[in-house]
Amino acid sequence: MDISLYLHSQGELIEQELDRLVPMRHGPGEQLFEAARYALLRGGKRLRPIFTLTTVRMLEGDLQLALKPACTLEMIHTYSMIHDDLPCMDNDDYRRGKPTVHKKYSEGHAVLTGDYLLTYPFELLATDSDLSADKKAQLIAILARHSGSDGMIGGQVMDLAYEGKKVSLETLRLLHRNKTAALLIAAIEFGAVIADAFPAQLDSLRQFGEAIGLLFQVVDDILDVTSSVGKHGKGMASDIRNAKSTYVSLLGLEEAQSYALNFYHQAVRMLKPLSCDTSLLVGLAEFILTRKH
Amino acid sequence: MDISLYLHSQGELIEQELDRLVPMRHGPGEQLFEAARYALLRGGKRLRPIFTLTTVRMLEGDLQLALKPACTLEMIHTYSMIHDDLPCMDNDDYRRGKPTVHKKYSEGHAVLTGDYLLTYPFELLATDSDLSADKKAQLIAILARHSGSDGMIGGQVMDLAYEGKKVSLETLRLLHRNKTAALLIAAIEFGAVIADAFPAQLDSLRQFGEAIGLLFQVVDDILDVTSSVGKHGKGMASDIRNAKSTYVSLLGLEEAQSYALNFYHQAVRMLKPLSCDTSLLVGLAEFILTRKH
Questions:
Q1: Do A31 and B147 touch (CB under 8 A)?
Q2: Which residues in A lie closer than 8 A to residue B108 (C-beta atoms)?
Q3: Residue A230 confidence (pLDDT)
Q4: Which residue from A206, A270, B211, B231 puts its CA 20 to 30 A from A147's CA?
Q5: Mean of pLDDT values over B5-17
Q6: Chain B residues with CB-CB distance to A144 below 8 A
Q7: Are B162 and A111 within 8 A, CB to CB?
Q8: Could you give all domains of chain A from N- to C-terminal order, each with its CATH number?
Q9: Is residue A221 within a helix (H) or strand (E), and if so which, with residue range?
Q10: Minimal C-alpha gap between A275 and chain B (Å)
Q11: What pLDDT, on a 0 to 100 scale, did the predictor assign at position A9?
Q12: Average pLDDT for chain B
């Protein structure tokens, strides 16, 4: 299957579901829904939900069951970007070529819209009548754990702690394991739980997710240097402006590129023990390695 | 039972459990745990968890089962205060007589600490091995719904929308139904679910919770005017500084006091159909009516 066609078709599915899950509602609190839809719709590569759907497809699970949970990952990802873009965090004015939520609305709205997109996924999962109570609890535990102090938020706090400091490669790896990889691991675990994967499969997939997450971040750091605002859509890369260590600043561009290639090979290797057609996951890994924005 | 002794003993229980649930962890992200514990421990009346425990006690449910879920409500309440105190929101420098989290640490840490205290409750509930999967899902649904766009966050967005504008009493009531009462209703629903209340009991308790929540807010507005910084601990009342409508600004002090008394009587009336000893809940209502800070 052509991977860019696949990404496009899955992206459309996810866009429709997000549009359905967060409808515009008019009334005194309507700016919440306006801002949430502004941040959530028509943007991004939807990699996290696509990894969930692809894992379920590969394990021959029920795709209908997967779409809503997959979208909750995109909401969590979006909330984290809204809060991360705030002036007191990375202070980014643009995201995906559009003004960030606090520029378009206000900082107060950005805080609350982020809070909403962090809260609503748990309501959606807990009330999803297609899921057994046991699966609901498993998915919620995965989502909260990988978003929390041992995942995304933990990574963000390390990010603040190390701003302006040169860190070791090992520390940078741990930081991005938490900040970036955790939610991609969650996406793949979501797929494994929904499709009732065996424990050994879950374990391989988790390691694949970790390698993919780190691959994604190295490529992101490379693109921050090699891509212009029009392509990457974030204005001058805030990691550079905020004097953060990146894989490129630690390793140099060429070494970072071979570092990325290593993570790609590691990811593909993790899929070997799975006794199923892994070509779509390999295709996604390759897409992440070779993406230009 | 003497209600202030009861509040004290329950408060101690909750304090111990919160201390256990959010231990200090050292390492690169330690400021997260430091700030979370700073905000969470040694402060507040713990009304939300106390309402959960009291409801369970009244319905003769399993109190051991209730303590951890009760504490998740206090975490959500604390996150909402941390975000609400931010300069882009109410801009409060003091809370309970101590510098707010963004003054003590930084705005970035306040955003992330709030995010953490919003995320962690869902992990705790989803992984609580004492709860059935079904109860986990029910509690998570209650917590997320009352914290979300139809609850606390919805109320906060209305609050932003109406800042500096004079609103009707009906609008103010809806705003506080969402901003303040929702989480108190959640606390009482938590107790009802944990103790397996009948649907009719749940319904009465929910209405009791709504009246209690509105009572709490009217009294809060009254205390903002009648209490000094040392007693109320928040510095000059930000609602007044931020030109927000309050029950006192709409009704005047005397009328607001009789409005509060009405909510108290309404709350007590809602308990009448319950065929159990409601004296502790009545005692809590009375405490909220007559509290001085």
A1: no
A2: 86, 88-89, 160
A3: 44
A4: A270
A5: 97
A6: 119-120, 122-123, 126
A7: no
A8: 3-290 (1.10.600.10)
A9: helix A199-226
A10: 30
A11: 97
A12: 94
Q: How confident is the model at residue B43 (pLDDT cuts 50, 70, 90)?
A: confident
Q: What is the pLDDT of residue A235?
A: 54
Task: Please spell the DSSP secondary structure of B75-89, one letter per residue.
Answer: HHHHHHHHHHTSTTT
Burial of A250 (0-12, 13-18, 19+ CB in 10 A): middle
Minimum mean pLDDT range among A122-136, A160-174, B45-59, B65-79: A160-174
Mean pLDDT, contiguous 10-residue spans, chain A (293 residues): 93 98 94 98 93 98 97 98 97 94 98 98 98 98 98 96 91 95 98 97 97 96 79 61 86 95 98 95 97 86
Can you point out the beta strands (E) in A23-105?
A: 94-95, 98-99
ipTM metric: 0.96
Beta bridge partners of A98: A95
Element (H, E) at B94: strand B94-95
Written as six digits, the tokens of A260 are 């990325």
B137 to A133: CB separation less than 8 angstroms, yes or no? yes
Three-class HEC string of chain A? CCHHHHHHHHHHHHHHHHHHHCCCCCCCCHHHHHHHHHHHCCCCCCHHHHHHHHHHHHCCCCHHHHHHHHHHHHHHHHHHHHHHCCCCCCCCCEECCEECHHHHCCHHHHHHHHHHHHHHHHHHHHCCCCCCHHHHHHHHHHHHHHHCCCCHHHHHHHHHHHCCCCCCHHHHHHHHHHHHHHHHHHHHHHHHHHCCCCHHHHHHHHHHHHHHHHHHHHHHHHHHHHCCHHHHCCCCCHHHHCCCCCHHHHHCHHHHHHHHHHHHHHHHHHHCCCCCCCHHHHHHHHHHHHCCC
What is the C-alpha to C-alpha distance for residues B289 and A93, in angstroms, rounded to an integer? 46
Query: What token pair was written down for B62?
Result: 């399993």
For residue B76 the two structure tokens come to 């959500």
The Cβ of residue A91 has, within 10 Å, a number of other Cβ atoms equal to: 15
Asked if A120 and B148 come within 8 Å (Cβ–Cβ), the reply is: yes
